[in-house]
Amino acid sequence: GRESPAAIYDAAQDVLEEAHSLFANPESPASKEPLRLVETKIELGCLYRDRLQLVDKAGNPSKWRAYLGSALALLEEAETLANERNLAQLKLDAIVNAAWAHYFAGELAQAKEAAKHAEETLWRWIDEEEGGSEKTRRLLEVGHPPPAPADHESVVYYQLSKIDHLRGRIAMDSFRARADEFEKKHPGEELP
After folding, report:
1. How far is CA 62 from the centre of its chain?
2. pLDDT in tens, 29-75
3. Distance (Å, rounded) from C-alpha 123 to C-alpha 125?
4. How far are the Cα atoms of 28, 60, 82, 117, 128 from residue 131, in angstroms, in the given order?
5. Element (H, E) at 161
6. Helix axes 88-104, 61-84, angle to 10 degrees
7. According to the model, what pLDDT value does residue 95 have?
8. For the residues of 20-38, what is the DSSP string, one character each?
9. Which of 5, 9, 82, 186 is deepest in the core (most CB within 10 A)?
């Protein structure tokens, strides 16, 4: 038989917590790899973020809050460490994943703000890498094919797609909430 999602998450959590303790322990030779510590914090934060979807917030609020708190704390730690070590791609990844954690928590205003922060961070990074020219703000040039993945940092497109996907989900959730309000006020009527 297939394992339950909770069992799979439990196994992943055990492995990631072990990896995190190895990279975070100053006594461990692995602690000399700060990049791996940042990656492990991001992965563990994402695991806690994803676990939010399996826990009934109303039925088990303490577990739900613990997962959200752990997710946000680990992703914030990853962002801080990545910033200190000038690991721009990992910093951006941590910020984008924190935005998604807010979304999965139903905190749409915080998710929107975090998505804005992520996009601003992305453009600052591009400006720093490319010298801040006007051309860097246009990722695709009119009349030219998109760059080959080997010739361009695909992380830019990947993170932009995650940010835009999040914005789309927030917009759809907001629309559905407004449609539900309309339906309650005007049962059986069509939306204008």
Report:
1. 22
2. 998 999 999 999 999 999 999 999 999 899 999 999 999 999 999 99
3. 5
4. 39, 50, 21, 20, 5
5. helix 154-185
6. 160
7. 96
8. HHHHH-TTSGGGG-HHHHH
9. 82
